[in-house]
Amino acid sequence: MSSTMKGKTAHQLFKMSILLKGLDGLLEVGGGVALFFVSSRVLQSAVSFLIAHELSEDPRDKIANFLHDYTQGLSSDTQVFAGVYLLGHGFVKIVLVAGMLQDRLWAYRAALIFLSMFIVYQLYRFTHTHSPVLLFLSVFDGVVVALVWRESRLRTTGCVEGGVV
Questions:
Q1: Residue 160 neighbours by CB under 8 Å, 6+ apart
Q2: Longest pairwise C-alpha distance within the chain
Q3: Which residue in 107, 118, 90, 120 sits closest to 148, CA to CA?
Q4: What pLDDT, in 10s, does the model give residues 20-61?
Q5: Under a CB-based contact definition with an 8 Å cutoff, are residues 148 and 112 in contact?
Q6: For 90-103, how does the pLDDT look when each residue is reduced to its tens digit (9 = 90+)?
Q7: How remote is the C-alpha of 37 from its chain's centroid?
Q8: 161 phi and psi, to 5 degrees?
């Protein structure tokens, strides 16, 4: 594969990965807003409804039981914290993705900082929870960091012509 072809492939991976981050940000903002307007009782009922089928097939399903137990013990303070966290986290992602899609250099630098902080936090949490999801997210974010770093370097060195790497 030629270096031009590799560059185009890496650029397409970059675009897809930041679009996924943007979509994730939109979902987080939606979830954060929902946490402010949905009572904990309604949230518990919705989760119970969504996991009922899974628990009927496998009563020991770890994810379904975690969701059930988590929502049952959800205090209003925790719900507010989660809402604020999701809104903030999602908003940051949306702003950074929009900035990168508009080729704003500040957005690349800020994305590298924030994604690196997320990776450190996710790996810290992994040492306590041993959740494979956190490990997967950290690896995915690491790939996104590498792609953002590559795009940032190309833009600061002037190696980008007509939007094609």
A1: 154
A2: 58
A3: 107
A4: 999 999 999 999 999 888 888 888 888 889 888 888 988 888
A5: yes
A6: 999 999 999 999 99
A7: 22
A8: -125, 125
Give the pLDDT of residue 26: 96
Phi–psi pair at 164, nearest 5 degrees: -110, 130
Assigned token pair, 144: 């996104």
**Per the structure block, which two tokens stand in for 4?**
């031009």
- pLDDT tens digit sequence for 6-22: 778 888 999 999 999 99
Average model confidence (pLDDT) across the chain: 87
Amino acid at 131: S
From residue 53, how far is each of 48, 59, 61, 65, 73 by CA, in Å?
9, 10, 11, 12, 21
Contact, 17 vs 143, CB < 8 A?
A: yes
The tokens of 61 are what? 């399903």
Half-sphere exposure of 47 (CA within 13 A, CB side): 19
Q: Which residues contact 70 (CB under 8 A, 6 or more apart)?
A: none
